[in-house]
Write a structure and sequence with these properties.
The chain is mainly alpha-helical and about 200 residues long. Helix content is about 80%, strand content about 0%. The chain has ten helices and no strands. It starts with a helix and ends with a helix.
């Protein structure tokens, strides 16, 4: 399995920055591995940081747009039936739907840094027919720092890029905590605004 993944990554990167975008778009390999391998290849002089980040953002955003469109045009029944082929289970859809209903459109940005709901959150956004422009903007803004982090870490790890999950764990955990805190802050602000609007 390890050799298969490495061979796929080598093929992806052999296509240059376009390959990174394609690898993230179809995501047969976790984005963290694709981006960290891109970082490693950048350290070897085969890719550039700017080009890798741009490719990562484009590919990652398009991947989420596929899920958004699947939710918008296929609906929940379609995703419950075929979601397993893209590693999204009914449980993931249930959790992301609850998050979207509870926290609103803004969760599209914050949820990108939280495991389990990170990918699946695009589905309820599509089902709810969230504004395409708003969805794309929030998604892109979240994928930028995500791509930069894993490309940078991959470049610092060098040949040890495969250890990215272990090395990145403290960073992703911190990002998840910050995202959760910000979500709570947004809810509190909304509650305060709504209470002020109510007639005395």
């Amino acid at each position: 399995m390890h050799e298969f993944i490495v061979s796929i990554l080598e093929w992806i990167v052999s296509l240059g920055h376009l390959g990174i975008a394609l690898g993230l778009m179809i995501e047969i390999i976790p984005s963290e591995l694709v981006l960290s391998y891109a970082g490693y290849m950048m350290s070897q002089g085969h890719l550039t940081f700017t080009g890798s980040v741009i490719a990562g953002v484009i590919g990652g955003t398009i991947a989420q747009l596929f899920l958004y469109w699947a939710g918008a045009y296929g609906g929940r029944p379609f995703l419950e039936k075929y979601g397993k082929y893209i590693l999204i289970s009914k449980k993931h859809i249930d959790i992301s739907e609850r998050w979207f209903e509870k926290y609103g459109a803004g969760v599209i940005f914050f949820a990108r840094f939280i495991p389990v709901v990170r990918h699946a959150i695009s589905i309820p956004a599509g089902i709810a027919k969230m504004s395409f422009v708003k969805f794309t903007t929030y998604t892109t803004l979240a994928i930028i720092p995500w791509s930069m982090m894993f490309i940078y870490l991959g470049s610092t790890l060098g040949r040890n890029w495969e250890n990215i999950k272990t090395v990145a764990a403290p960073y992703t955990k911190l990002a998840a905590i910050i995202a959760a805190v910000l979500i709570v802050a947004v809810i509190i602000i909304k509650l305060i605004k709504n209470s002020k609007k109510r007639p005395a």
